[in-house]
Predict the structure.
Amino acid sequence: MAEQQNDKRGAGKVQPVPEQDFSDYAGLMVIVEQRAGVAKKVSWQLLGEAKRMADKINAPVYALVMGHNVRHLADEAISRGADKVYLCDSPVLEQYRTRPYSRVSLDVIRTYKPEIVLVGATYTGRDLAGAIATHLPTGLTADCTQLDVDENRVLHASRPAFSEKMLATILCKQYKPQMATARPGVFLELAADSTRKGEVVSVSSPMSEAEVVTEVLDFLELTDRINMEDHEVIVAGGKGLGNAEGFKLLQELADALGGVVGASRAVVDMKWIDHDHQVGQTGSTVRAKLYFAIGISGAVQHVVGMQNCDVIVAINNDPEAPIFKVSHYGIVGDLYNVVPAIIKAVKEKRGLPFAANTANG
């Protein structure tokens, strides 16, 4: 009886993964996300980062392109840093569905054995990366904001931790491939170079349409959703606005500049503005050409999401605000006096009508 009880207790234990030889795994692979034949920017950003890391360890860069009528994306991947592209072009892959896309990815990974696999941390990328990692003897670090590789070819995948107050660097030393998803807007994409040479390897889809249990009927675009990563001008506000009404002033400046309104986490938590506008570790990471930080103190959680913008203009009535340390231009003063003056100057420059009562906030 005692032996039977011991057997029952042991039956539920998680068995260790058998040791495997990963010595033949090499290279960095980026899974290119696309919709309707247009690649997501994060895929090219990751290709640029993969190329940087690959140069450190003298490794090749691969790209995996899946879809239907997407051969042009394979060529573009080569122009943006890939040495070899695995292309699976099939009607089954015309629309993203987890099972066929993960099956293709698993076949390519198991056959060609990249040592590192990177995926964009989009809704689709998170779904696909999780589905892939589930079937591999490896881990997955999600939503990374920093990536690096050391001399031992170990991926250092860093992501926010402890209520976004610090970065945790996660290593996967024993298993391959090492996998990570990375946030859009964090890394710089390489400019396309049409003279680059590379190889395109065609791979077949392991599934027929009859084997796929789901069918995409239609896509409904949320036209009112703000995609912060796509905008070149962002006018962001924080608690210094005093109340939600202050965003009307920021919207006027954003409209005059042809931009969009952003926000810090604090004002999103206070329901002054929707989460779609949030910039920072728990929001969007942006690389705008022009970024206004208005009434934002400059907490690290916000700064990591906007510090790589080309030009940062900070407006704050506290001369010691941390935001001034990362800004290119700083204005110390009452935002309800400063912002209307900027709006007036912009509208005069662009020949737009200006309402004199804007300064009332």
